[in-house]
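Risk register update: the risk of archive-format incompatibility is retired. Evidence:
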Amino acid sequence: MGKIILSIITVYYLVKIAYLEYRYKYIADKDVLLASATVLILQYIRGNLRDALGGTIIATSSAVLLYVFAYLKYKYAAFGSGDVTLLFFLGSLVGLERLASWAMFSSLFFLSIIGFQLLRSGLTRKTAVPLAPFLNF
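Archived output:
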């Protein structure tokens, strides 16, 4: 019963974070950290805590490196700190074993949506594109 409740809370946070990012281009760190705590408890109950922590470390480290690299190269933040905490959450959710396949799938999905938007409305390099809806689903 506890796994079901924690899973429902996790799905709630996935939908809430994706909606807020899409609608307002804002990710509340409070929501992401509460979702991360919920997922880590769920992973502990399932016996997958080590895998979840590994995914968290790799995903967060990658996000921080990408954030710093983009800032140094382009002199502005390519994405916000909410996106970094979002990857902390998603890394704990998918775990280390599935992190690479999840990253490849979500990247292809994200690029296809961006390509469609580029053709339809003429996005520019300066256009902010919300990541959460694409990464969460």
